[in-house]
């Protein structure tokens, strides 16, 4: 079964404190028009509303919720997100196509195409996003620290 919750982990080379790192992550989520964020000690949870003006090609459009979490020694960032809403929407569309065509095979193929391709594209784009975020966090920590 397709995983509907995906998780990435990246190693950080950051000397910043957790507050600075989480500030930068929160700033990035705000830039991406994530409208509901909740910050705790080492974790930022977020929810992405369906009608928030992002548009269908936006990086976070298929993502309904997730979190970014630092481990205790701040050397690893974990990014987890859910595509459950995308699963439900594409399931409904595929069911509709199957009913209209009167062929359950067409419905199955429609689902595999709609959800499968969206899922693969989301995996690729989110992987690029987390790599860029890691680079930004590492860059910020090396350019703004004084020893």
Major pleated sheet: 5 strands, antiparallel
Shape: elongated
Strand order of the largest sheet: 1-5-4-3-2
**How would you state the average pLDDT, rounded?**
84
Determine the strand fraction and express it as a percent band.
Answer: 15-25%
Number of helices: 3
Write down the Rg.
Answer: 18 Å
Write down the secondary-structure element order.
Answer: EHEEEEHH
How much helicity do the residues have? 40-55%
Number of strands: 5
* Structural class based on helices, strands and sheet pairing: alpha+beta
Give the termini distance in whole angstroms: 50 Å
| Weakly predicted, low-confidence segments | none
Structural features:
alpha+beta; five-stranded antiparallel beta sheet; single chain; 147 residues; 3 helices
Walk me through this protein's architecture.
The protein has 147 residues and is α+β, with helices and mostly antiparallel strands. It has helices spanning 18-31, 84-101, 104-143, and strands spanning 5-11, 36-39, 43-47, 65-70, 76-82. It has a five-stranded antiparallel sheet, with helices on one face. Strand 2 (36-39) and strand 3 (43-47) form a beta hairpin. Helix 2 (84-101) runs antiparallel to helix 3 (104-143). The protein is elongated. The mean pLDDT is 84.
Summarize the structure.
The protein is of the alpha+beta class. 49% of the residues lie in helices and 20% in strands. β4 and β5 form a beta hairpin.
């Amino acid at each position: 079964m397709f995983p509907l919750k995906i998780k990435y982990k990246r190693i950080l080379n950051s000397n910043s404190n957790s507050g600075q790192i989480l500030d930068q992550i929160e700033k990035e989520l705000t830039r991406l028009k994530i409208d509901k964020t909740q910050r705790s000690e080492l974790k930022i949870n977020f929810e992405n509303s369906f009608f928030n003006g992002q548009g269908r090609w936006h990086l976070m459009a298929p993502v309904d919720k997730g979190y970014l979490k630092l481990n205790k020694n701040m050397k690893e960032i974990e990014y987890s997100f859910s595509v459950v809403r995308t699963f439900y929407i594409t399931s409904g569309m595929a069911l509709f196509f199957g009913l209209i065509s009167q062929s359950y095979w067409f419905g199955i193929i429609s689902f595999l195409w709609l959800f499968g391709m969206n899922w693969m594209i989301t995996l690729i784009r989110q992987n690029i996003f987390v790599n860029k975020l890691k680079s930004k966090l590492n860059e910020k920590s090396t350019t703004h620290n004084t020893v």
